[in-house]
């Protein structure tokens, strides 16, 4: 199948991306690892001993960096619809966390414990129709926020990828209603032309 100009441009951009090359050298599963590394350096969300939930975790770029940060005294519970290869110190639950069976599995893994940080790098399968994709992405981050409200400890933190566009301002306002402090981050590893930003909520009101 002949490649379209757009897909060829994306492939060239991806192959020549310094963060893709760096991830290969550093042994990271995804260039996205550097986004969370930068956010955590700035906002100090995840510490040794933290209990962290990673939503939309496959292929594991975020869980991979979080696991050593939390250490043996912390925990990482990751979930994705897609499969993910195992990571030491990470409990992975495959499935759609909005389905009751999967949600119950996550809760039973927590065993009554609340979570310090919920992170989400989820993105929808893009259709190429901007409006449809934007609604799909907002829907996903709304689900991530719902999960955070259900599992976070008071004072806990939240970090989620969101695309600027229709529904973004309302979503940011919704996050502000549940957290004392809300910041918007655009990490260096995020492609400049991408509309993605990361909303960081600190001090969950519970």
Descriptive overview:
Its EC number is 2.1.1.166. InterPro entries: RNA_methyltr_RlmE (IPR050082), RNA_MeTrfase_FtsJ_dom (IPR002877), rRNA-MeTfrase_E (IPR015507), SAM-dependent_MTases_sf (IPR029063). The chain has a single domain, classed as Rossmann fold, CATH 3.40.50.150. Helices cover 42% and strands 24% of the residues. The protein contains seven helices and seven strands, in the order H-H-H-E-H-E-E-H-E-H-E-H-E-E. A seven-stranded mixed beta sheet has the order 3-2-1-4-5-7-6, sandwiched between helices. The termini are far apart.
Q: Roughly how many Å apart are the termini? A: 52 Å
Helix content range of the residues, please? Answer: 40-55%
Please give the order of strands in the largest beta sheet: 3-2-1-4-5-7-6
Task: Compute the CA-based radius of gyration.
Answer: 17 Å
Give the CATH superfamily. Answer: Vaccinia Virus protein VP39
Structural class: alpha/beta
CATH classification class = Alpha Beta
Strand % is 15-25%
Q: CATH topology, which one?
A: Rossmann fold
Q: Which geometry do the CA atoms define?
A: globular
Poorly predicted runs are none
Tally of distinct domains: 1
Count of distinct strands? 7
Q: What is the CATH-assigned architecture?
A: 3-Layer(aba) Sandwich
What letter string, H or E per element, gives the SSE order?
A: HHHEHEEHEHEHEE
């Amino acid at each position: 199948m002949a490649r379209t100009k757009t897909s060829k441009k994306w492939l060239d951009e991806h192959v020549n991306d310094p963060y893709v090359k760096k991830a290969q050298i550093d042994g990271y599963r995804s260039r996205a690892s550097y986004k969370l590394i930068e956010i955590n350096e700035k906002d100090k969300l995840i510490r040794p001993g933290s209990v962290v939930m990673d939503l939309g975790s496959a292929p594991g770029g975020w869980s991979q960096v979080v696991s050593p940060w939390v250490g043996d005294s912390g925990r990482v519970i990751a979930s994705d619809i897609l499969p993910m290869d195992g990571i030491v110190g990470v409990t992975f639950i495959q499935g759609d966390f909005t389905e009751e069976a999967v949600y119950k599995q996550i809760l039973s893994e927590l065993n009554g414990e609340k979570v310090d940080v919920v992170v989400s790098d989820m993105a929808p399968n893009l259709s190429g129709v901007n409006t449809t994709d934007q609604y799909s992405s907002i829907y996903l981050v709304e689900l991530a926020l719902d999960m955070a409200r259900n599992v976070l400890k008071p004072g806990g933190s939240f970090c989620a990828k969101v695309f600027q566009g229709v529904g973004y301002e309302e979503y940011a306002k919704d996050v502000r209603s549940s957290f004392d402090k809300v910041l918007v981050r655009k990490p260096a590893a995020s492609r400049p032309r991408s509309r993605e930003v990361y909303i960081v909520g600190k001090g969950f009101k519970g």
